Amino acid sequence: MYKMETKVAVVTGGNRGIGFEIVKGLCAKFDGAVYLTARNEEKGRQAVKKLEENGLKPSFHVLDVTIEESVQKFAEYISTHHTGIDVLVNNAGILDFDKPFSCYDDAKKLIDTNFFSLLTISKILYPILKNDARIINISSDWGLLSNIRKQVWLDTLNKDDLTLDEILQFVNEFLEAAKSGKNSFMTFAGPYGDYKVSKVAMSALTFVQQREFREQGKDVAINCVHPGFVKTDMTMEMGDFTPERGARGPLYLALEAPQSLKGTFVWHDGHQVNWDD
Fold first, then answer.
1. Has residue 22 been placed in a domain?
2. Catalytic residue from among 126, 192, 195, 252
3. pTM for this entry
4. Does pLDDT of 239 surpass 60?
5. Whole-number average pLDDT of the chain
6. Residue 237 domain-assigned?
């Protein structure tokens, strides 16, 4: 089958909120195909229809980042129709804003979606990235290292030679704490600890993977971004920014930032911040 030479941008969880606005912005300014992906096909196609009514032309594909088979099917589709991915926005994520303290099962589900899914994406989608691709991880100010309360992890996660195995130890130790109840949960990361751990782990993974890309001689740029406190369904419509404003930082990294900007934590206004402050 003939493969289209057009550039390709992919947004996970693109059917609503910040993800939808990122797709919208990419459709308006990105010179190539823009894939709005969602785990729910009906909601995804409704989102595409809404954009089409505004004169935009996104493509759609089902993608559940928590299911390896779904990620594999998407990768096979992209590999069949295109020469690779130029922009990948890892936006899919969940948060129960009404539950500052989760039970173990809820914490595991959140971390599976917000963090462990990135490992599946890394394994399956990273091999089809273009050499100068851009990866944007949607993090949070809760993804700053200072959100963690255990000194051993403040020290470990800040190492220049941090490894994926150490990040996994960090996440799994938190999940064990979640099994032990509210007090252990609080000691580790405080209220919304599962979300904080998932985003801190995402941030740490960003830096580790950038180092790996560099060691492999690839020009891939991977950064994480705090979009601001955005009014979405996930935040129960509380926040400082509209989803459109929240998309500004991610779109800057996708479209405007210099390729030399690599392995950083970027604030919603585009400036770099020290992750470990």
1. yes
2. 195
3. 0.95
4. no
5. 91
6. yes
